[in-house]
C-alpha cells in the first residue's frame, strides 16, 4: 500500500465495539484486570494507552521501524534516547543540530558523565575522525537548521556501526514523506511531533521509532521508567495529523520550491538556502536521499543589516513572526535574534548564521499570497 493510504488506515481500524470509523479517545488512567497478576493488553496509561498505541502503530509503520513510542514533547523523546547512555559513553553529533538537543547534551546529559563532540556531518572525513572507541550514539539532522545542510544518512550509519554505535536521526524537518532514515541504515528516528506530524500549531509531542525490537525494548524500558509519555488527546491529534501528512508536506514543499526560486532572483536577496536549488551545496545528495521534493523549510540572507532583516520579519502579514515550524500557517523568524539568539555573535558567525538571515516555514497558503506578502515586506 502507498504511504498516504497507510497513513490513513494503519493503526486506525474502526472501533471493534461500536464500529466508529474514528476510534474514541481513551482517557482512562487504569484498566480493570480479570485476575491478580495476570495482565491484559493495557494496565496503566503510563505503560500503555489504546489511543497512544494507535498513533505509535501508524508512525512506526510509516518510518519502517519495529516499534514507536510517543512522548509529551520532542525533547522528552530525545532525552529518553540519551537516557539509554551511561557515564563514560560518548555521543557524536552534527554541528547543525536543534539548539535544544545541543543544550540537553552539553548542560544536562554531561552531568551524568555522558560526553559529547560536535562535528560537521556534511564533511564525512571530519565526521568519521571525530568518532571515538566509546562512541555509543551518533545523532544527526537532515536538513539541518538554519542553513538546511544535508547529511548523508547511509554514510553516517556506516561510520556509527564501525564502532558498534547506534545512529539516531532527527527527522523532524524532512518527515517520513520525504526521508525514511531506517531504510538508509539508521537505528532510531526521532520527531518533534509538534511540527509537521501535528501540523496545525496546536499540539506538543515527540516520537522515537526503533529499527529493531531489541532497541525498542530498551527505549520502552526507559520511557516507562521516566514517564514523559504523550497524553491521549495529543495522541489523537497526532494520529489525525498523520492522515494528511503527505498531502501537506508535498503541497508545502511545492510552494517552498517556487518561493525559493523567486527569492533567488530577488535583487535584495543575497543568498537562498534551500536544498531544492541546484546552488545549494547539499542539492545532489538531497535529490538522492529525499523523495522527489525538498521540504518546506528555507532560509535566505538579505543584502542588508541585522536591522534590515528585523524590519522584514516584523512587517509580513501572512507569515507570522514566530519560532516553530511545520504547520499549515506560514511562519517567519530571524535566527540571529530568535531561534539562535543564545549563540554569541562569534559563534553565530562560525556556524554561518548571519545577521541578515531570515528563516521561513512555508505553510499551505497560496503561493501568490505568500509571494506578495514577502514582496511588500522586503520592499
Ligand atoms: C522543535 C524541534 C525539536 C524539539 O521538539 P519539541 O517538541 O519542541 O520539544 C527537536 N528537533 C527539531 C529539529 C525541532 O524542530
From TrEMBL:
Record PROSITE patterns: CYS_MET_METAB_PP (PS00868)
Modified residues (N6-(pyridoxal phosphate)lysine): 195
GO MF terms held by the record: cystathionine gamma-lyase activity; cystathionine gamma-synthase activity; pyridoxal phosphate binding
Cofactor or coenzyme needed: pyridoxal 5'-phosphate
GO CC annotation terms, alphabetical: cytoplasm
PANTHER family: CYSTATHIONINE GAMMA-LYASE (PTHR11808:SF15), TRANS-SULFURATION ENZYME FAMILY MEMBER (PTHR11808)
Name under which the protein is recorded: Cystathionine beta-lyase
Origin species: Aeoliella mucimassa
Source taxonomy: Bacteria, Pseudomonadati, Planctomycetota, Planctomycetia, Pirellulales
